[in-house]
Amino acid sequence: MATQGQVITCKAAVAYEPNKPLVIEDVQVDPPQAGEVRIKILFTALCHTDAYTWSGKDPEGLFPCILGHEAAGIVESVGEGVTEVQAGDHVIPCYQAECRECKFCKSGKTNLCGKVRGATGVGVMMNDRKSRFSVNGKPLYHFMGTSTFSQYTVLHDVSVAKIDPKAPLDKVCLLGCGVPTGLGAVWNTAKVEAGSIVAVFGLGTVGLAVAEGAKAAGASRVIGVDIDNRKFERAKNFGVTEFVNPKEHDKPIQQVLVDLTDGGVDYSFECIGNVSVMRAALECCHKGWGTSVIVGVAASGQEISTRPFQLVTGRVWKGTAFGGFKSRSQVPWLVEKYMKKEIKVDEYITHELTLAEINKAFDLLHEGDCLRCVLKLSILPSLSALHPFPFSSPMAGAALQPYQCLVDAILQEGITEETLQSLLFKIYSIAAEGLGKASPHYADVSIEGDDQITKWTTPVDKEGG
């Protein structure tokens, strides 16, 4: 692509200070250095971890920065030595790296990776300990090694998972954090068996993914615990069989659950990040074998506590990061499972907005009804606004609307907005001559090089005519 090796100026949502609205800026994104990948982010979702850092409670939070870590996009260019991805590949950025070479990766005991953590933890890239983002010459910190609230971002190659190009990026972007965290907490960390009784504390995205994972594992009962009764109906669709609201009981919630389950649950999952709830989640587990998994992230400085006797008598306390999944190896597998309809993803998406509406998206995240809000990062003007030449009546206004799908499909192939200008005349020629009858329901575009449409599929083609 023409942008390879060049600084790209694009839109990004910049967090200048904790708890202050994010600002949409024109930022400069440097080319990738050795071992780095520059990605065009097409879709990104909001996660409570972004809100946690934005709040100022994250001890590793650095400002000004570009937040965001749950996304999907297309590789724009790669740096020297990068071999596993190339320009045009569809990818999911992964905050949990996988180098396959460090002590952690080779241990076979964890999905943690130590190769780039020393750099990503302080908001820079490993090669030169500098940022690839700037605004008018002033550097911006990276976030979690991903920074996906930007139309372009630069990652270490060990943090990039190549996925099936047929997977819809506006859906599978969720497989960069919350959904795998919940599923993996059940499948990898706890290893829930068929017939188990499970309690899930907190019925947000991660909690519902835990419920889905428990149902898939064959749990006999999945008890949802939340202080919002409205969440129960939705939770049923993800596998929750019973609902308990702690506010409706005089006894501590752990005792309520022990009484409900003849001695305690087999597995519990804390998906909130509240240390008091973490204790309750442990103490509701069955004596002798109950296991509790901490999934939620508590605020800086918080400590967990319980009576040692709880552990002496056989209960186990565990934690999990990214659900124990190895990112580059297993995120593509999760995408395959989604494509085969073996796991839910679409059902977690409750809102869809644009990058310009990111502050509204954060408001929605805190209101309780929002599971995941997906932001579209491509700035897609109308065809008439993009076209450099005047055109006349038959093609004007609403008549152009069906052809917007061609533009969208082209961009999904990794073509930049700049290159799109050179394609529009061809699109208009197709339409004007009556050769292209594309509708918003059927558009399949193949690209050769930067500016050649080699194939388009119309409704007639789809029907074999």
Characterize the structure shown:
The longest helix is centred in the last third of the chain and has 16 residues, at 417-432. The model is unreliable at 380-401 and 434-465 (pLDDT under 50). This protein has helices spanning 48-54, 103-107, 117-120, 169-172, 178-190, 205-217, 231-236, 253-260, 275-283, 308-312, 327-339, 358-367, 383-386, 404-412, 417-432, 459-462, and strands at residues 8-14, 23-29, 36-45, 70-78, 90-93, 133-135, 138-140, 152-156, 160-162, 197-201, 221-225, 242-244, 267-270, 291-294, 316-319, 349-354, 372-376, 445-448, 452-456. It is of the alpha/beta class. The strands form 4 sheets. Strands 3, 4, 5, 8, 9, 16 and 17 form a 7-stranded mixed beta sheet that branches. The protein has a 6-stranded parallel beta sheet with strand order 12-11-10-13-14-15, with helices on both faces. A 4-stranded antiparallel beta sheet has the order 1-2-6-7, with no helix packed on it. Helix 5 (178-190) crosses helix 6 (205-217) and helix 14 (404-412) packs antiparallel against helix 15. It is globular and about 65 Å long. Residues 206-333 form the Alcohol dehydrogenase-like C-terminal domain. One of its GO terms (cellular component) is cytosol. Belongs to the zinc-containing alcohol dehydrogenase family. Class-III subfamily. Residues 34-162 form the Alcohol dehydrogenase-like N-terminal domain. This is S-(hydroxymethyl)glutathione dehydrogenase.
